[in-house]
Design a protein that fits this description.
The protein is built from 16 helices and 4 strands. With 456 residues, the protein is mainly alpha-helical. A 4-stranded mixed beta sheet has the order 1-2-4-3. Strand 3 and strand 4 form a beta hairpin. Helix 6 packs across helix 9 and helix 14 packs antiparallel against helix 15. The radius of gyration is 24 Å and the shape is globular.
Length: 456
Amino acid sequence: MLNAIFSTLTFKTNRYLSGVFLLIGTGFLFIGIFFAIFMAISFFKKSQNQLLKSDLKLSYNKNVNNPLILQAKISSIYSLTGTSYSGLVSTYIVWILHITDITSIDLIISFTLTFLLEIMTAVLILPRIDLFRETRPGEIRIIKLHDFRGGITAGVLTLSRHSPFKSIIFVGDEDDSITRTIEAHELGHATEHHPIFLEPSIIFLLSIIEPLIWFVGFGNIMNREVISIFLVIKTVLIILSVVIAILLFVRVAESRADAFAYKVIGKSAYENLVEALRRAYGENIKSPEDAPLVSKIFHTSSRNAIKTGDPLSSIGIWEFPVVLSFIASTIAIIPFNSIGIIYPLLFVGTLVISFLIGLVSLPIVRKYYRMTERGSLNFSFLLAGIYMISSIIALDAYPNLYLVISLLLIGIILAFIITRAFLDLRNSTKVVVASLLIYLSINILISLIKILPHGG
């Protein structure tokens, strides 16, 4: 893909070099497909709740600042490489190719190049820094720190035939039920690879922000409008969509880790959690609702999952519809030449439709989800939002029917993968098929309502 994009960029100025890029890219395509298949096999070959003793390595360390130092180094690498790569790509587009009127295609190319370069650098460098260098691929390393409150899980992608994942957990060294509950929570993050999924998400966000800053900066240097204000506003909406999507993922991941702790520890996990919050924030904490705002933003305020074992019971019933509708309306506005009143109308429309589809699908979802009522409702809204987003993306590809069908199939596959994270294979298939049929039926009904009056 990287070489294909370079090929497209250089086609007008140097067709020979363009052909070279395309030829090299074809070879790397086959390598990429092989690595993608290998990662998929490595990820799904074990049950997400199955944890082998050989996967765990326990060690002790007196340096309580190790987690902060590690996170600081990772953040520095992200910032340095992202700024450098986006700067090089932007310079190549503006100064080498002399493209001084940036279009959406130029932005997409710069975003993609920056993202691919940052991902490759992260995969090559991060597994070789500090504690990750001492961690074997596929291993979950638990480091006990003296006088350490709470827990932190870090993970990176790595190139290895054994496993593409490396994970490290930092917890306190006290041998009590509170620490064991925190450790179980962090094990939930590690076994489901939450930090590793977060890694490309953050890189993707930075890959959008940094080229935009460079293009705006070039405009100031050249004393002319390199990129239009309207395109900047659209890009800012995309950035906001990615930010709230990442925040929602973090909240769901924390809720899933709480549910994992409930399965490991049992009913006492909730009281242990409250006691852990008291240790961290003071004796005035009576429940998770009393925790500081930052904790409630990232971990949810109720923490019901650690009481019920339902990973979606902590999420507010408004979260999936609002967030996914915001993302859907941002995607829908991209082809328009103005935003104005159109964007709020799109947001309200997608929000109403998501709620309706979720409520209509609820009886089917409830039948197979079989946990709490809030969890079933959230699960139904999640599927409705995914179908909504995939449909809008497919509509943006119209009139290319092959691309429309491909994008719809990708949306269905994504819905199945997400459903599979909560249900077994058989029930996942039933839920996706039933909810998809309901979604298609509602769309057909809406189309008939629009067509019949004109036909009469």
